Amino acid sequence: MTATKTKVAAVQMTSDDHVAANLQRARALVDEAAAKGAKVVLLPENFGLMAQHAKDKVAAREPDGDGPQQALLADMARRHGIFVIGGSVPLACEDPSRTMQSLLVYGPRGERVARYDKVHLFRFTHGSEDYDEAKTIVAGATPATFAAPCGRVGLSICYDLRFPELYRAEGDLALIVVPAAFTQRTGEAHWDVLLRARAIENQCYVLAAAQAGTHPGGRRTFGHSLLVDPWGDVVALLAEGEGVVTGDVDPQRIADVRARLPAWSHRRLVS
User: Pick from 18, 24, 66, 186: most CB atoms within 10 A?
Assistant: First the structure.
């Protein structure tokens, strides 16, 4: 497949604890992205459920290959003839008290083309904030990518953004996707700089779709969904509220940046 300039979109949501309502809003936002010409659409982490208690995600987990969240993703991809990336879907695992946090990619015919299970599990404490994903999520172990019209796409979820070795393990990428539910505090401190760093060091585009606003229980997420280019410039940004941010992934821009500053080809510690 020859890589071509491709319009991509990140969907920003303020999901709550009503799965059916969240999926209805997700459908409308994917429709909007497709109407704007996007051929790759990214939904945020936990697009189907942002509940007050982490254990609620376990109760909502779906068997691999069946369930309302997976059905929505497949239907939207097929109906619009695009790639739809579900930022995370809780999938069943052997441990009945936990779930997999799985990013799922569906192609233009509605077929699933990739699955990535979140490798790095978030742990953060500050004042009243206390998050420990390992209590309810089983960590994945394997990087994953898929081929899109713009080139190879590297998959990750939220906290993975802090671990650059994951993306190097995924190889030569045109685009990295980062669906997320960054907290307000960690987002204000690190979101922008981490996304731009991943784009600069891999000399590729980074597309981030975020949760934004206040969720059940008072949890606040940072938003600021965006597209960053290989030079680290922000191409498009949606700071707050639900909506869609779009921009082009241009293989020629990647080639030009790598020709002027060939850092990617200067790598030495490559296994």
Answer: 186
